[in-house]
Design brief:
Helices cover 38% and strands 23% of the residues. With 244 residues, the chain is α/β, with parallel strands linked by helices. Helix 1 packs antiparallel against helix 2. The protein has a five-stranded mixed β-sheet, with helices on both faces. A five-stranded mixed β-sheet has the order 7-6-8-10-9, with helices on both faces. It has seven helices and ten strands.
């Protein structure tokens, strides 16, 4: 099984497990989110240890260790990206399985299990981006839109599109449902590794909001900001952020 096949298989399977946990009726709200996180985490971490025993692992729900810092290949995983949305029976949540190679998000898959039939976007099966509309659409948090994103959207004349998890927003750009995802409110490596790997494979611009590259498998896993957008919009978006 290739790395891309493994990432996609694990993300899809974890998504099915999460749907079964939700459908069980045993949990609701925050308890459902916690149960889903724990169950998916155990499956993903155990599967990666079995399938790639020599690689490192960084997972949101598993205690981090320094062992990964000495490894070139590190799997960076978010079992439920958008725990609140998952617990609220929404569809804008995701499962992230990414592989960082020498600090770069090289391989990955993002599952969107809540969509009809489930969807998995993966680095080895990129598709052509659909034509962009005349008025760009910018994705923002549905509860806490970042001030920078709101200001940039106003300067670009972009329409704001509220959405849940980071993975759902990033994949909305990949799927042609929006053109810009600008985030500055705080994230960690597992929030963006797999989405960035997939977005890069599809030809999108991915960087920090100061234009610097996204680096992974760092000792400090805090990676607070992110820009994923159509390449033709990257320069102007970065210029507007820098001018703030």
């Amino acid at each position: 099984m290739t790395d891309a096949d493994l990432a996609a298989h694990l993300a899809e399977t974890a998504g099915r497990i999460l749907l079964q946990v939700r459908a069980s009726g045993m949990f609701e709200g925050k308890a459902l989110g916690n149960a889903g996180d724990e169950t998916a985490d155990r499956f993903l971490v155990n599967a990666l240890r079995a399938q790639r025993p020599d690689d490192g692992i960084l997972c949101e729900e598993t205690k981090d260790t320094a062992d990964r810092l000495n490894k070139s290949r590190v799997w960076i995983v978010d079992p439920v990206d958008g725990t609140r949305e998952y617990g609220e029976d929404r569809d804008d949540w995701a499962v992230h399985v990414g592989l960082s190679v020498d600090g770069v998000a090289e391989v990955g898959a993002v599952a969107l299990p809540g969509l009809d039939g489930g969807t998995v976007l993966r680095t080895d099966r990129p598709d052509t981006l659909p034509p962009a509309p005349k008025t760009p659409r910018m994705l923002v948090s549905r509860s806490r839109p970042a001030a920078e994103a709101v200001a940039v959207a106003a300067a670009l004349g972009a329409n704001l599109v509220p959405m849940g998890s980071a993975g759902a927003k990033a994949m909305a750009v990949v799927r042609g449902e929006a053109e810009i995802y600008l985030h500055s409110g705080g994230q960690y490596e597992w929030d963006s590794c797999a989405p960035v790997a997939v977005a890069r494979a599809f030809g999108l611009h991915c960087s920090r909001i100061d234009g610097s590259p996204m680096l992974y498998n760092q000792q400090d896993t805090y990676l607070p900001d992110l820009l994923i957008c159509r390449p033709e919009l990257a320069e102007e978006t970065l210029r507007l952020v820098a001018a703030m």
